[in-house]
Design goal:
The complex is a heterodimer of chains A (about 170) and B (about 100).
Chain A (H helix, E strand, L loop, with lengths): L4 H19 L3 H21 L3 H26 L3 H10 L6 H18 L14 H8 L4 H21 L10
Helix pairs in contact in A: 1-2, 2-3
Chain B lengths: L4 H21 L3 H25 L4 H29 L16
Helix pairs in contact in B: 1-2, 2-3
Classes of the chains: A mainly alpha (about 170), B mainly alpha (about 100).
Chain lengths: ~170, ~100
């Protein structure tokens, strides 16, 4: 059982970039590292034989959702005092407890993974056609539910952000 | 030369643990939302890895559902964050969110 080199490289980049996201003090730096992590994860999806998921990861996550985050960072207009305050918030003292908890979770998950499951054989590429057939065949109810969810998200985001200037809130 | 599903699941576990660390450590709401995105991504990776193991398209269908969930979550979370900022709150400290009105 040898690991393929593209998978290993993409996984290393993803973990490293994610660690940098968690530890940065400046929001836009963390966002750029998050984009790097998402692109590396798209490479992982492609290696795992899921090209449709890889393309959607680039378009929707790294494209749409990250642009939303960048817009919010621009509107918040963070400056130098925010960076200093953020630096004081992520003092090394506060990392011990959460780090222990996260390490415990990782140990539990890794412990659950050591069960010797039989390998599934070589990777077969699952292309868009198969995904589409599954999506509009047995999972068509979940497509409807996803549209409900997106509509609810749209309505609530519109309602919350309607009087963003702060005047005459009903 | 294959990538075993166990290795992909291990990568998903590491990403999830890092996201949990971010949610626990950071006090800035923007960073907490980013960490939640990381955790959702890790769950999506686990689904895709399982779909790869069983040679089934169901994993990618669940990936699509997680994508829709992440989009809705980001939109609502960022709208709430902008609302907190517009209400004159000087910082994005998550501990001050209990004074949200309206």
């Amino acid at each position: 059982m040898t690991t393929s080199m593209p998978f290993l490289l993409s996984a290393l980049v993803a973990v490293w970039a994610t660690f940098m996201v968690v530890t940065r003090a400046v929001a836009i730096h963390a966002l750029l590292y998050l984009v790097v992590a998402l692109l590396a994860l798209a490479c992982v999806f492609d290696v795992l034989g899921a090209p449709f998921a890889a393309i959607l990861e680039v378009i929707v996550y790294a494209g749409a959702i990250m642009v939303l985050f960048v817009f919010v960072v621009m509107m918040l207009n963070l400056g130098r005092p925010d960076r200093l305050r953020e630096n004081s918030w992520i003092a090394p003292r506060g990392w011990i407890g959460p780090g222990l908890l996260a390490a415990l979770l990782l140990a539990a998950l890794a412990d659950a993974l050591v069960v010797a499951a039989p390998d599934g054989g070589p990777i077969a590429v699952i292309d868009t056609r198969q995904v589409g057939l599954a999506l509009y065949g047995p999972y068509v109810l979940m497509v409807e539910l996803a549209s409900f969810l997106l509509l609810a998200g749209l309505v609530s985001a519109f309602r919350i952000g309607r009087h963003i200037r702060g005047e005459d809130a009903p | 030369m294959t990538a075993a599903p166990a290795q992909a699941l291990l990568l998903a576990s590491m990403l999830f643990a890092l996201g949990l660390l971010g949610v626990l450590v950071r006090r800035n709401l923007l960073f907490m939302l980013m960490s939640i995105e990381i955790m959702l991504n890790a769950a999506a990776l686990a689904f895709v890895a399982a779909g790869m193991r069983w040679h089934a398209a169901d994993g990618q269908v669940m990936f699509l559902m997680i994508l829709a969930l992440a989009a809705a979550e980001a939109a609502v979370g960022l709208a709430i964050l902008l609302r907190l900022h517009a209400a004159g709150r000087p910082t994005l400290d998550a501990d001050t969110g209990n004074r949200l009105k309206g």
